[in-house]
Amino acid sequence: ARPVTLATLRGKHRRGEPITMVTAYDYSSAVHVDVAGIDLILVGDSAAMVAHGHDNTLPISLDLMLEHCRAVVRGAPRPLIVGDLPFGSYESSPAQAVESAVRLAKEGGVDVVKMEGGTPSRVSAAKAIVEAGIAVMGHVGLTPQAISALGGFRAQGKTVDSALKVVEAAIALQDAGCFAVVLECVPAPVAAAATTALQIPTIGIGAGPLCSGQVLVYHDLLGMFQSPAHSKVTPKFCKQFGNVGAVISKALTEYREEVEARSFPDAIYTPYKMSSSDADAFA
Ligand code: KIV
Ligand code: NA
């Protein structure tokens, strides 16, 4: 088993210690998240947007999610790894949900799965996955896979009626056996009410400070998309903890300029000498 387990998270929650989660989609991002000491890695279907350039999360397939999961698992031996069930892989029936969750666990190598929504049919699906032996993280509030029905990426739970729906959905997911619930883009008092009402941890994104933990998208928090050439916008709830996009652009531009000026590679980066045998060719 990995160093971070459900028991680790329960302990943190019991002691009132914040739980940390970040997305990762490939080997190198997973290595960085692991080294930073983050508790949970979410192999999010946000990969559709930040890794594949789509405008929303709908297009990514289960097979492609599995590929991302395998790469992340290879890069991050320490954190608990959450695989996101992509759009179209779990809505039809609890049996379809179990089948897809089993593939994420068995072929993708993830420890637990996450699924969006808290309607009765989603709650039944969550329950079926837990009964199959795979732990489930719920996700309510803004559920990006429902962008068509929601009419866009917009905050949820702003009225008392819809706030109640968010909290009730979170409770229903807890009762179905979920070990935690993501609260996305809801007013802080709604997230606080859900966190108080639940025995399991809440993980907030755009949901204010009163959650049991926080999650952000890797590319957003690193400031990956900030050069004017990029169309991807960082959501307004996301603090950019780095300027990685600017660092990457500067390095790539300097590389191009040095090659064009023939100043790279100079003698330092021209290590191979002629010799009488090929035996030391890679020395
Ligand atoms: O896919 C994702 O990145 C997510 C987080 C925003 C919670 O679901
Ligand atoms: Na997601």
TrEMBL record:
Record carries keyword Transferase: yes
Entry EC no(s): 2.1.2.11
UniProt entry tagged with the keyword Transferase: yes
Example GO BP: pantothenate biosynthetic process
Signal peptide: none
Catalyses which reaction(s): (6R)-5,10-methylene-5,6,7,8-tetrahydrofolate + 3-methyl-2-oxobutanoate + H2O = 2-dehydropantoate + (6S)-5,6,7,8-tetrahydrofolate
Pathway assigned in UniProt: Cofactor biosynthesis; (R)-pantothenate biosynthesis; (R)-pantoate from 3-methyl-2-oxobutanoate: step 1/2
Molecular function via GO: 3-methyl-2-oxobutanoate hydroxymethyltransferase activity
Keyword tags: Pantothenate biosynthesis, Photosynthesis, Transferase
Domain of life: Eukaryota
Protein's job: Catalyzes the reversible reaction in which hydroxymethyl group from 5,10-methylenetetrahydrofolate is transferred onto alpha-ketoisovalerate to form ketopantoate.
Protein family per UniProt: Belongs to the PanB family.
Name of the featured protein: 3-methyl-2-oxobutanoate hydroxymethyltransferase
Full protein: residues contained: 68 to 350 of 396
